[in-house]
């Protein structure tokens, strides 16, 4: 996995022989994994792009998938060309061990001239999902960065995961 930090989004891309798929649960087809994007704010009371019952979270993860059979450009121009799974993170007193592997790369990213680093010993993508994947909010919308194409079917999981205060602060460095 390779991580890139633009100081708003930490993107993590991985090379797979066969990409993980997401399907079912009301999605209109099969979608293959393209990247992870982590979004955080300037302090621990904000950062998530979604809210649940007016609560904003310090960190939000987007697992981005493109519809199987479409190129990246085609997916961006199709309604529901992309399926994004959004996972919210609430503050905890303990580190999230799955996140720790990814966040450790930030130390290297911030000193690298291209703001890129390798993520060593990453966990399986499924370990970044909440235990209860049956409770979620679903809507058609747009990308939240870049070109803002209206090509996304969003799935926002109701159950947040945990992140420690130290991990949130680490992402700001």
From TrEMBL:
InterPro entries: CA_dom, CA_dom_sf, Carbonic_anhydrase_a-class, Carbonic_anhydrase_a-class_CS. Its cofactor is Zn(2+). SMART domains: Carb_anhydrase (SM01057). Its EC number is 4.2.1.1. Signal peptide: none annotated. The keyword Metal-binding applies. The keyword Lyase applies. Keywords: Lyase, Metal-binding, Zinc. GO terms for cellular component: plasma membrane. It comes from the Eukaryota. Residues 1-173 form the Alpha-carbonic anhydrase domain. Gene3D superfamilies: Alpha carbonic anhydrase (3.10.200.10). Reversible hydration of carbon dioxide. PANTHER family: CARBONIC ANHYDRASE. Belongs to the alpha-carbonic anhydrase family. This is Carbonic anhydrase. It comes from Hyalella azteca (Amphipod).
């Amino acid at each position: 996995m390779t991580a890139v930090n633009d100081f708003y989004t930490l993107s993590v891309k991985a090379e797979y022989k066969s990409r993980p798929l997401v399907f079912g649960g009301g999605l209109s087809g099969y979608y293959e994994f393209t990247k992870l994007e982590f979004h955080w704010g300037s302090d621990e009371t904000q950062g998530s792009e979604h809210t649940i019952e007016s609560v904003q979270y310090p960190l939000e993860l987007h697992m981005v998938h493109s519809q199987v059979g479409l190129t990246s450009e085609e997916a961006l121009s199709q309604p529901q060309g992309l399926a994004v799974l959004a996972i919210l993170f609430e503050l905890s007193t303990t580190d999230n061990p799955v996140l720790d592997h990814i966040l450790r790369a930030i130390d290297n990213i911030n000193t690298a001239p291209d703001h890129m680093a390798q993520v060593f010993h990453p966990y399986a993508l499924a370990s970044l999902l909440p235990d209860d994947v049956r409770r979620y909010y679903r809507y058609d919308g747009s990308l939240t960065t870049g070109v803002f194409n209206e090509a996304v079917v969003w799935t926002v999981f109701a159950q947040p995961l945990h992140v420690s205060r130290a991990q949130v602060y680490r992402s700001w460095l």
